[in-house]
Each structure stands twice: as structure tokens, then as C-alpha cells.
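Form 12-C: Joint structure prediction
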Amino acid sequence: MQVNLMDFWPRIWEATYQTLLMVGISLAAATLIGLPLGIILVVTRQGGLLENKTLFRAFSSVVNFFRSIPFIILLVAILPFTRLIVGSSIGTAAAVVPLVIFSAPYIARLVESSLLEVKPGVIEAAEAMGATPWQIIRRVYIPEALSSIVLNLTIATIGLVGASAMAGFVGGGGLGDLAISYGYQRFETDIMIATVLLLVLIVQITQTIGNFTSKKIRRQ
Amino acid sequence: MIQFEQVSKVYQHNGSDLRAVDQVDLTVHKGEIFGVIGFSGAGKSTLIRLVNLLERPTEGRVLVNGEDLTQLSKPDLRQVRKRIGMIFQHFNLLESKTVHHNVAFPLSLSGTPKKEIDQRVAEILEFVGLSDKAKQYPEELSGGQKQRVGIARALATSPEILLCDEATSALDPETTKSILKLLRKVRDEYGITILMITHEMNVVREVCDRIAVMESGRVIEKGSIFDLFSNPQHPTTQNFVRTVMENDIPASILDGIEKRGSARNIYRVTFVDESAGEPVLSQVAKKFDVEVNVLFGQITELQGVPFGHLVVELQGPDQEILRVINHIQQRVSVQEVTSHAG
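Section 2 - Result
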């Protein structure tokens, strides 16, 4: 076992950057899709603000469908779709598409569960005050659930960090890929240790930021 | 102000009909505090939600200010709802907002200018006695304070009607009293019509002008507080009255009488109105050759009129006791009590 110091740090930094990029972009895009989806799941359900059985069943089934596919299979299964979106089926950008499709339905469910924590009485009170459904969503549901949504997004982010490790399959790079291709396949134990430590650090920092923000939001 | 005309609300439950509200006829007059009392499941919660259409009637009409709200479009209904305030058992405040912003909420929904909102919120918080709590969060308040915020929020849009959904049921007796006092002040100073539902008889006794008793979706009895307390007709009403006015002679007293072997000549003397102020019994003791032994009793006040009863044992010769009964029957109502019945 020999340490190539010339190569070691640049490779680590590049992989870290790729991981953060993949997770960051995927998280943003998945939230953009998952948040409205979660809201729709809550307001269209039975007894919801805009009850609509057909719509609820349709959205719920789609969410369940995508949530039941293991990420590694999703990654290869949607390759043609990925190529259509980003013009290539390999590289960091190509990894983002399956990551989004993987985590958007997950975020939808997390948002749904956060919104369901808002006491029905509070929603009823807003209705009794003559609030429109949109006002209730924007000014009651979201602010009341925001602290919990942030905590749940933290969970989703950590899930994304994990999933992004499989991005190596489509040449996405990142820390997970580095650990597999160098640390595991080439027996470079120091790379393995460094990447794992970095992943641990990323998860710890993410959780800490999430906890702090969530607490802060509860009391603006 | 609020009229229920043959109103029913039917839910489909496992294929069968559940009549939560069953052919209710009620009229709540302007400026009155009207109470609907019933055990849980009696349908009162559904009834109060029919007023602002949180529940839609299956049959019949609910008129608010002579207007049938079911005929309104959604935007019009929302406008009308702004004139009907509502408070709740569990307050239903926005936990993420300060007291100020909770009270400001209904105003901001209709796009009231901030300056106007701030002025109105300050005014209404002063009215409910929470001016110093404006910057605090609901979580930091006691139950009574939270309900005051609820009341302030309901009053912010200057409604004509206030609906109270078990508004004091989560509060201790002392806090309940102060909230009821505040509700009466709401009616007296703003002339707001109040419809409240509760399962607590002491609540309606405290503030209501008239009440209706509900059971299984139906209104089984209605009338003024005084009539319902002094002369309840329906067994359920009698049960409710008993929760605040002890009617039965406590077992310990009955036991004592039976041990002495003189379970007779026990009478219930009911005082109504001015007779409650008269020294009927002390006169009896002076005028006749009997001893008056007060076993048990209660006198209370209903809407400023004293009302109550005493259970007394008369000791003396039989004819003398008969004369006593004849004498006091002219002033108060007297009933012989047997050792079994109350």
C-alpha cells in the first residue's frame, strides 16, 4: 500500500465537489417537485381542503410506484429518459436525473406527513375565517409545518448522499464512486478511509444544519 | 339573527344513515347569548358548524341575518364567514405566529393595510386583557390566555355573531369563569350575538339567556335558563340540572335518619323567586309547636333570581306538622320525601 500524495487530495476534493453538486442540484429539483406533490396529496385526500378521490389515488399510486423501485435499478432503467433530458447518459449531470426521480416521491411523502401534523382544527379555524384554499396552503399549512418539513428534508438529503454513492455506475463520480473504484477495487485503503470519513462529516454537518434551521424556524 | 328551520344533517356511515342533527328548529335573537347543551355525540358540534357552513345541512335551512348561506357562491360565503367569528375548545391558534400575528391573521386575509391591522390588533388585545403578550407565542401562554387570543382573533373582523365550540371545556373552573365573563363583556359592549355549545351546565347557567337541550340530534327542550333550571321537563334536562344543583339527599344523611328510625316527616321545600328571601322556616319554628331540622339544601342564583331548595325534617305531633305544611304551602312548594326517593 502506497500513498500517492500528489494524487490523493485533488482526487478527494474533486469527488467531494461532485457529491455536493449532485446532492445539491438533486435536492433542489426534487424539492421543487416533491413539495407541490406532498401538498396535493394532503389537500385532495378524503376530508381534505380540496377533496378529490380520483386525483388523490392517481398521485398516490405514481408516488408509490417510483418509491418501490430500488435506486440502482432506476438508475439504469431510465437511461433513455436521462439522455433525453441532459443529452448524455453518463457523467455527473446524468446522475442527477435518476436522483431527482428517486427522491422527489420520497420528499412528497415526507412533506405529506409533515403537513398532516398540522392540527385539523387550525385548518378549520382558517376556513371559518373565510380564508381561500390557497391562503390556507400558503399561510397556514406551510408555515405551521415548515419546521417539520425542514427536518424531513434533512432526512431526504442524507438519503441522497447515500444514493449518490451509486452514481459511479453512470460515471457520475463523487465520493462513493471514488471509494469503490480506488478504495475497494484498487485496495487503496487510505482513500477508502478518507472518503468514508468525509461522508460521515457531510452527514453530520447536514443534520446539524437541519436541526438548527428547524429550531430557528419554529420561532422566527 | 340565526334561524334553524327543520334542519337535519345526515351522514352516511357504513351504508346506514346517521342523523347527527335531526329536524332542529331554533331561533337565536340578536344580542342574545344562546346555549346549546348536550352530552358528547348529541350533535351540538355539528349544529354549530351548520351556522357558518363548515357543515352543509342535508335538509332544511339555516338563515343568518335572514340569508340562506347555502345559496351563496364560494367567494360570497367567505365574505359572510368574516362576519361570523368562531372560537374552539382547543383554541386552534397558529403555533408558528405570535399573539399579534394570530389576531392579525383574519384581517390580513382580506388585505387590510398594515397600519390599520396594527391599530385594530392593539385595540382588541387591550379588550381581552393581553396587551403585554402581543410578542409571545401561543406555546408560552396558559389555556385561559390562549382562549383570550382566540376570542381576540374572532373579534378582529368585527363580526355580528360569535360561535363558541366548547370554548371553556379545556379550562379549569376559575379560568372558565373569567372567559365567560369576557364573553358576556363581548355581548354587552359590542352587541354581538353569541351561540355556544357546551356539555357543562354551570357554563350555561353563568352566561346564557336561553338554552336548548340536545339529545340524539334533536332539541328536546328549550327555554329561558330560569324555566329549565326550576322546572326541567325531560329526564336528560333533569340530569343536567342535577350536575349543578344537587337534588338528592346525600346517602350519609339518609343513613343517619334511618338509624334513628324516623324516616318520615321529611319534606323538600322549594324556593322560587322572592320566596327565597323570606324567613319561612324560622317563622314556622316560632309559630308552631315543631322543631325544624334542616338536613340538606342549596340556594343559587339564576340570572339574578334566587332559586333553591331545602330538605327539612319536621319533628312534632302529626296534626301540628300538617298545619305547618298547609301554612307554608301558600308561600313555597312543599313535597314529602320518602326515604328511597330523592
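Section 3 - Comments
The radius of gyration of chain B is 25 Å. Chain B has two domains: 2-244, 251-336.
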